[in-house]
Amino acid sequence: MEFPRNLIGQLITKASKTNPRAIITPLRQAKASNFWNLSRALEMDLMARNPHLETPVFVDKNLFLDLGGFDESLDPIDDWYLHMLLREAGVTFARIITPITLRERINFRELIRRKYERSRKIPSFLDRFPNAPQPKLSNKLKILWQGRKKLLSKPLVSIGLLVLKTIEFFAFWWGMHLSVINQKKRIKNIYSLPEVAANYEKRRLGTNYQRYKHYSEIASLSAYLNTRNKNKILEVGCGTGRITSELIE
């Protein structure tokens, strides 16, 4: 990253006037004749000012520490986590027009590795933020469609961008696919899987008959337990803890 000379001054001025807790500074790719860097620069230009993809570069120190600070285990999606944590805390993002310049040469091996590693973090990220917009392909496709005139004005560079995004997509898909498989292998109790838990209530209590059946089961078990030692611990069911919690109540 290269900070322009006047950036710190602008930050101080912004902070003194509005006292923002988080400030977004746009990112841009440094000018280069390299074909792939031109493709990446086009992408960054299209994605600029998208509220779902931009994360503040400057955050109030106390706020940042309250949110947990920097967690290396979240890399390389720590920016997504920070964005969602700030939104969750109700923080409004301020903005500075002056961009920060990025100088990075496209390395396909590193590109694939980073995208693969990022995708492996997605399942846990979505468990924490199920409605997060960042991983949704539809949002990025919408941005590309809105910028179609700019894409058509640079056909060769746009083709390069298409190649880059195709490579990233397959690396991302493969990493996420393996992550889900490994997660299922580690979990012995299927009721703790998000996709099972999400549909459990609907299937378990989906009809009047099922609701009555559930009620009668709880009533019968409760009546039986009242005749026994109340201090004895008993776990009932398949491991979700739901029936046990209802009996305790």
TrEMBL record:
Signal peptide: none annotated. Keywords: Membrane, Transmembrane, Transmembrane helix. The chain crosses the membrane at residues 156-176. It comes from the Bacteria. InterPro entries: Nucleotide-diphossugar_trans, SAM-dependent_MTases_sf. The keyword rRNA-binding does not apply. The keyword Zinc does not apply. Gene3D superfamilies: Vaccinia Virus protein VP39. This is Methyltransferase domain-containing protein.
